[in-house]
Amino acid sequence: NAGVTQTPKFQVLKTGQSMTLQCAQDMNHNSMYWYRQDPGMGLRLIYYSASEGTTDKGEVPNGYNVSRLNKREFSLRLESAAPSQTSVYFCASSEDGRLSSYNSPLHFGNGTRLTVT
Amino acid sequence: DQQVKQNSPSLSVQEGRISILNCDYTNSMFDYFLWYKKYPAEGPTFLISISSIKDKNEDGRFTVFLNKSAKHLSLHIVPSQPGDSAVYFCAPRNYGQNFVFGPGTRLSVLP
After folding, report:
1. Measured between CB atoms, which of B9, B34, B44 is closest to A108?
2. Cβ pair A55, A48 in contact under 8 A
3. pLDDT for res B97
4. What is the spatial distance between Cα B104 and Cα B4, in angstroms, rounded to a whole number?
5. Which residues pair with B13 in a beta bridge?
6. How far is Cα B29 from Cα B46, in angstroms, rounded to an integer?
7. What pLDDT does B7 receive?
8. What is the pLDDT of residue A41?
9. What is the structure's pLDDT at A23?
10. CB A87 within 8 Å of CB A111
11. A97: pLDDT strictly greater than 70
12. Does the pLDDT value for residue A105 go beyond 70?
């Protein structure tokens, strides 16, 4: 059981380049999320998808777009990468998201380390 | 303003002793509190949770205490083991909202 799978694991971009981070979960979860982790700042929510067909902005959405391709897959796109987007990106999923019961924590992938030069 | 603070960026503890990790929050509407553990090059993994109707939840070596009046949460690990060395995040949530993560505390358990 793979859980949440993210690709790629590492990426180096030049300023202005674009790329898409891929995420897939095999737990039949309804909700999916993209976070970024920066030193001293914990995990900050970029975008989330409460259910298939819906997406919403999180705390730090500027410079990003997302697509909930189907129930399993949720991608994050950087259209024109900037050095400020250098970070570690985590995808997560949960059974019912914001309206979940107390037994529905987030399940995370292993992250994508992105460097923008 | 940070809604969730973990004021100790790092903590070192001797193996076998107790580790206490603290978390303070400002939003009195938070009703569900989680702790996550993160090893290098891996994603965070869920460790233990507590709802606002309780003041203590225990799971093996891990106990979480909630003091709602002080808006304070703590995670106790007894006894600490070298494999507990990781970054620990507290992540509370208000029902209907997303989880808010603290900045994390790096725990080092020394053999």
Report:
1. B44
2. yes
3. 79
4. 10
5. B109
6. 22
7. 87
8. 83
9. 98
10. no
11. no
12. yes
Q: Is the pLDDT of residue A86 over 60?
A: yes
Could you read off the pLDDT of B13-45 as tens digits, one per residue?
999 999 999 999 999 999 999 999 999 999 999
How big is the CA angle at A84 (ends A79 and A90), to the nearest 5 degrees?
A: 75
Contact A3, A24 (CB under 8 A): no
Torsion of CA B74, B79, B85, B86, to 10 degrees: -30
Q: Is B98 on the interface with A (CB under 8 A)?
A: yes
| Residue A108 Cα distances to A31, A51, A64, A88, B15, angstroms | 12, 17, 19, 12, 28
Facing residues of A100 across strands? none
Task: Enter the tokens of residue B98.
Answer: 């997303």
Hey, what amino acid is at A50? A
Phi first, then psi: give them for residue A32, nearest 5 degrees. -135, 155
Q: Which of A105, A63, A73 is nearest to A7 (CA)?
A: A73
State percent of chain B over pLDDT 90. Answer: 89
Backbone angles phi, psi at A110, to 5 degrees: -90, 0
Which B positions 68-87 lie with beta carbon below 8 A of chain A?
none
Residue B12's beta-bridge partner residues? B108
The DSSP annotation for A17-46 comes to: --EEEEEEE-S--SEEEEEEE-TTS-EEEE
Residue in A with minimal Cα distance to B44: A108
CA distance A111 to chain B (A): 6
